[in-house]
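Inputs:
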Amino acid sequence: DAGVIQSPRHEVTEMGQEVTLRCKPISGHDYLFWYRQTMMRGLELLIYFNNNVPIDDSGMPEDRFSAKMPNASFSTLKIQPSEPRDSAVYFCASINGLAYNEQFFGPGTRLTVL
Amino acid sequence: AQSVTQLGSHVSVSEGALVLLRCNYSSSVPPYLFWYVQYPNQGLQLLLKYTTGATLVKGINGFEAEFKKSETSFHLTKPSAHMSDAAEYFCAVSLYLSGNTPLVFGKGTRLSVIA
């Protein structure tokens, strides 16, 4: 199994641009989580899905952030417009809902907004 | 609501010395507890987990943790540190087995191992 796949691994963009982060969960996993990691705030949950349906998006910082999961093998996190304070590492994680909450993390996308 | 406090954002030990990373949790119901490790430029990897049963849990790479309900603690230990243990360690808590409630992570502790 290839594990959770995220792309791109690094993204540098200018303030005001649209950014799209992508995630492919492990096949057969029915939960998908998006996290953001910064030095100041640590690891924060942004949103999570169960069977492609968003369950809790209360961690999404503001309307500039949106996430979709059109099918079981693909999810996107979009920031429009991006701001310098969005600079962070964004992680995607997936689990099999019966697996004692053992989340499998992707390698992350390091986003830098100039 | 549940929360996790990791005492010490940075711990430094000598190679071969005992590793002790502290984690205290707050939960209104019996918790499920986890330790994750993050190596530079990588995602988080599960070290060990406590769900039910034996309170001393053994994980990968020689790490273990003990759930102490009376102290609301889940400290991570390793008898002898190795250079390859240098990484960031995260304690996390969850209420449920099935993933209905996501994990809540501590701020992390960076472990440095000195030769």
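Chain A has a mean pLDDT of 92. Flag for discussion at group meeting.
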